[in-house]
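Supplementary Methods S3. Complex input for the zinc ion-bound model.
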Amino acid sequence: MSESEAKCPECGKVCANEHGLSVHRRRAHGVPGAFAAQQARGKSGAPKGLRAKAEAGGLSIRESFAHAAAEVDRAGKIMCDCVDGLAVLLEAARKLRLAYIERSDKLRKLEAQVAELDQQRA
Ligand SMILES: [Zn+2]
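Predicted complex, serialized as structure tokens:
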């Protein structure tokens, strides 16, 4: 069916063009000409319907790609959050380690002072 052909939405009859369809619809179904032609443009024919369906299919593929992209985005964000969290944990661990080293240094100094006092007493 070519672009100019038009299908009757009432009975499915394919007319050679929109004018033919509007004549058919007026005669067969009592639909006023101008309205019939206008309505036919929106609803006419399998090709337009199939194209709309294909476009809808394409859109849904595009949508699923967008969805997949959003998923990847979200996963990436979660990974960033994890890395950020890991960085925070590592920083906290580094501070704890420094605090531990500092305290063990103090402890060693105290032990040394105690040993010194013990030697002085002896
Ligand atoms: Zn008809």
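The two ends are 116 Å apart (CA to CA). Residues 46-121 form the longest helix (76 residues).
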